[in-house]
Amino acid sequence: AAAWAGGGRAGGIQAHPDGGGGWRLYGEADRVLDGHSAGLLLVAAHAGGYPRSRTLLFLVSAEAEGLARTRLTSMDETRPLARIELRDAPARLLGADDGTDVCGALADTGSRAAAVLAAEAVGAAAGALERTVAYVKEREQFGRAIGSFQAVKHRLADLYVRVEAARSAAYYAAWDPAAGPLALAQALEAARIVAGEAVQLHGGIGFTWEHEAHLYVKRAAADELLFGPVHRLRDHAAGRAGLFGAVTADGPVRGVAV
After folding, report:
1. What are the entry keywords (predicted)?
2. CATH label, 103-248, candidates 2.40.110.10, 1.20.140.10, 3.40.50.720, 2.30.30.40
3. 2-36 per-position pLDDT tens digit
């Protein structure tokens, strides 16, 4: 929650008054979803320097001077990314500079967004599994469908368990958004594993970018890079829950040692 503005007092995006009641922003942000085409940018920027260090939210118009946007090459072309550069770009303060906990509000919004993304990742994993099951029923080897082989059945059963476990986590996060990051970790892991196994189980026809299986692989890999990694999400959730207690240089003060 402390690094929303990209690094605190040094680095990230900085905000300073322009002397006329407005604000100017300086800095850059990478991997902004749809940043190249958005008509309005919502920017978290650090303001105040050392005396009044705080994070504030600003609105920046796509036509603002000092704004440069570059579309980046993205693994998943359905999630276009851009690099946003702000060079003393004029910005409008969103809300009031009254000590509101902006970082806390962003963290709460992030948990809710994570719950939505978890549901999407579960849908992708389920879709990849459904298509793989349909394929192994049709693909024949040694005079029988490959789906009839016990080894293939075991692999598919393991994938089904992963998908359903992730689905249950997504349902829980929809009920309690605070569990969003943990549900997202479960869903991203399931999507990555299922997509990878789908490629292997489609091996009888080879794997090329022309086959739809690659769409699931690219979505799973790109989402984990954007919203993960999985171990970081789980570590964050464990820290917020106090699962391992306070940690010092000598190790955990209380809790469970692993």
Report:
1. FAD, Flavoprotein, Oxidoreductase
2. 1.20.140.10
3. 444 455 444 589 999 988 889 999 999 988 999 99
